[in-house]
């Protein structure tokens, strides 16, 4: 992982990861394994280096999608995206009589659908010690620059093809902007410049709605499985 010298957004994201994930499940003199997917690997790489994780009692970092050797005497932290593929990998790690780790602390980068939470409760209720949404679904590019995790956004918003799912793209963009606000602990007023296709107005309304919803929710009590 590359080092980060930024004191702005990258450092803010790293501090939030430390507080919401690493400190949240910390126990004295206990080392853990950290499991990441493609998105969270890129996210962590952007704001910390391996020596930072070693200082946080992380003994090894692994890709949740790859074949891994069991380490049944260690607990694992899962920092993953709330999608079917990542949740399936997690569930497979804790199949009866073939558990890869002693226990799991699960942290989702964004809001997790109810059906995936239900799947975790049904498949691995005793081994999951904690489950939480930390709401970081953007990439800190520089100290004051961020990127959204939607590479096809421009095409989805402006394509003349009516089969393109524009609404899903708008929802994803709005949600990721809200996680940026949450990370910065800000609840800003939303302003926009009108454009012919009304994308700006629609997006502004979505962001405003999601901000209201987010700040009505006690984040620390979201998505817990004991």
Average pLDDT value? 88
CATH topology of the largest domain: Rossmann fold
Measured distance between first and last alpha carbons: 32 Å
- Biggest β-sheet: strands ordered side by side in the sheet: 2-1-3-4-5
Shape: globular
As a percent range, the share of strand residues is 15-25%
Q: At the first level of CATH, what is the class of the largest domain? A: Alpha Beta
CATH homologous superfamily classification of the largest domain: Sec1/Munc18 (SM) protein, domain 1
**Tally of helical runs:** 8
Instruction: State the share of residues found in helices, binned by percent.
Output: 40-55%
Pattern of helices and strands? HEHHEEHEHEEEHHH
Seen as an oligomer or otherwise, the chain set is single chain
Number of separate domains = 2
What structural category characterises the helix and strand content? Answer: alpha/beta
So, CATH architecture of the largest domain?
Answer: 3-Layer(aba) Sandwich
Spans of at least 5 consecutive residues whose pLDDT stays below 50 are 1-6
